[in-house]
Design goal:
By secondary structure, the chain is mainly alpha-helical. The chain has 22 helices and no strands. It has helices at 3-7, 13-51, 55-66, 73-84, 89-94, 103-114, 116-128, 131-138, 143-172, 175-180, 185-196, 199-219, 241-274, 277-310, 314-326, 331-351, 364-387, 391-399, 404-433, 436-441, 449-458, 462-489. The longest helix is centred in the first third of the chain and has 39 residues, at 13-51.
Length: 493
């Protein structure tokens, strides 16, 4: 973003600084703090309880508590608004309604959709530290006592890191906060930008949001030295298995079973009139956009990791760091940063009669924004793939006279294909669920499943929105089911 965009004329800025900005920052801070506490408590408690359960139950619970990642927060919000609103199950069964469209309702939504960000790394960490159960047993401690006395202090920094990732997702959210009417930085940027056309004020808010994200990245805890904390832990009472089972059942009900049942009910009631040509077109747009973005992201990721393996350099390492940083950047900031120069390029090209086409109204802009945001996911997959391929493989090929141009297709791609496929499907799911980038950068009259669900819910057509929502959840859940075994079981070896 140019300096002019920050220091130019900002008609809405005075209004913001007269009190509205404080309100926006306060709402964002409350949401972030609430999500941090909520996801930490739920995710860490479940991870500790599942790690202490018998082995035959771990697989089931891991699936149960990873699957909420398949439910985007805005979809969860629409489901609960239908559940507790007028005509919902709460109204039908008990004759009452509940106002969930407030900041506390949003914290509830974020807690029960984002707690897997804490649960998953904590479960992986606990799987790697399973030998501490034997240490606890030698000291006369049960599995649950070993959890709370020995392992819990080690896993706290891991839980904090996952909770901070959840906080970044909260700061990036648009769908939930817009639907609930909560003035956050992301909603403020969108409103000032699209509603008032004040790009300068929007850029200033974006810089504030980016500063908060940078602070969160700095606060990410280091996990070094956690083992040394064992001798300083205080003994605390263990949890009863029955109490843990009750808590786990409640989380599963609130985070997965209830939202799914509401979506299925909505599809049953409205599917016959919603499944039309426009819905099929939105599904095609979502899948094609996700496929194209994921394919480009995987190619970029492979190029980065291939270059670092065969031609390591300072520039290559810095390029990878920048790509990884983009995932932490809120989508609305990436969209804003791309749209301004591309619109300027459009105007310049049309003015000079170079073309009559408009780049900003093509798929170039959304694909570019999505690739920038999610390439880091593919990079991580490619990196894990290369970690299993020793350098001796390439050294042997070189000693046999195999040129590098040939080894790309005969060695690198075949060996990395499982990791690259995993990266492709992960990016595919992320793009499928993405709302802010798609909404801002999409061409005119170009709907996806995410935008269709959002606009229907905004018009209070909650049951109709369930059709697009359920399709997003089903595809995302299928991918998570395929990858979850590798995520957990791979950590225990």
């Amino acid at each position: 973003m140019a300096i002019h965009s920050v220091w130019g004329e900002a008609p809405s800025w005075n209004t913001l600084t007269e009190g509205l900005l404080i309100h926006i920052l306060g709402s964002s801070a409350i949401l972030a703090a609430g999500a941090f506490v909520g996801t930490s408590i739920v995710g860490l408690s479940l991870a500790i309880w599942v790690a202490a359960t018998p082995n035959r139950g771990k697989r089931f619970f891991d699936l149960l508590f990873i699957l909420p990642l398949a439910v985007p927060p805005y979809v969860f919000a629409y489901s609960y608004a239908e559940l507790v609103g007028y005509g919902g199950w709460l109204d039908t069964w008990f004759g009452t309604t509940l106002d969930i469209k407030n900041i506390w309702g949003a914290i509830f939504v974020f807690t029960f959709t984002l707690f897997p960000y804490v649960y998953l790394p904590c479960r992986i960490f606990l799987a790697q530290k399973s030998h501490w159960y034997e240490v606890g047993s030698s000291l006369g401690l049960s599995r649950y006592q070993s959890q709370w006395r020995l392992i819990r202090p080690m896993v706290l920094p891991v839980a904090m890191g996952g909770a901070l990732l959840a906080v970044m997702e909260v700061l990036n959210d648009f769908g939930v906060c817009k639907y609930f009417g909560i003035p956050t930085l992301t909603v403020g940027i969108m409103k000032i930008w699209t509603g008032y056309g004040d790009y300068v004020s929007a850029v200033r808010l974006a810089l504030i949001l980016m500063t908060l994200v940078a602070v969160i990245l700095i606060l990410q805890p280091s996990q070094k030295g956690n083992d040394q904390r064992l001798d300083r832990t205080d003994a605390k009472a263990g949890k009863y298995n029955a109490l843990g089972a009750l808590f786990a059942s409640l989380v599963a009900l609130l985070s997965l079973l209830l939202p799914l049942s509401i979506m299925i009910k909505g599809v049953w009631a409205t599917g016959s009139r919603v499944f039309d040509h426009s819905f099929a077109l939105a599904a095609w747009h979502s899948c094609s956009l996700a496929c194209l973005s994921a394919a480009i992201a995987v190619m970029v990721a492979f190029a980065i990791e291939f270059g670092l393996r065969h031609f390591p350099s300072f520039l290559g390492r810095r390029s990878k760091s920048i790509v990884l940083l983009c995932y932490s950047t809120p989508g609305i900031i990436i969209a804003l940063g791309l749209l301004l120069p591309i619109v300027g390029l459009d105007r310049w090209m049309i003015k000079n009669q170079w073309t009559t086409a408009v780049i900003s109204q093509s798929l170039v802009l959304p694909v570019l924004a999505l690739v920038i945001r999610y390439t880091s996911v593919a990079v991580k997959s490619a990196e894990s793939g290369y970690a299993t391929v020793g350098k001796h493989v390439h050294e042997s090929a070189e000693s046999l006279g195999v040129p590098l141009s040939r080894s790309v297709f005969s060695i690198d791609l075949p060996l990395l294909s499982p990791a690259l496929i995993a990266g492709f499907v992960l990016v595919f799911v992320d793009v499928l669920k993405e709302l802010p980038i798609t909404m801002i950068t999409r061409p005119f009259n170009y709907d996806t499943l995410a935008t269709k669900a959002f606009f229907m819910a905004s018009d209070e057509r909650l049951r109709e929105s369930a059709n697009a929502s359920l399709l997003i959840v089903m595809v995302s859940a299928l991918v998570l089911l395929l990858l979850s075994k590798k995520l957990i079981n791979g950590a225990s070896h």
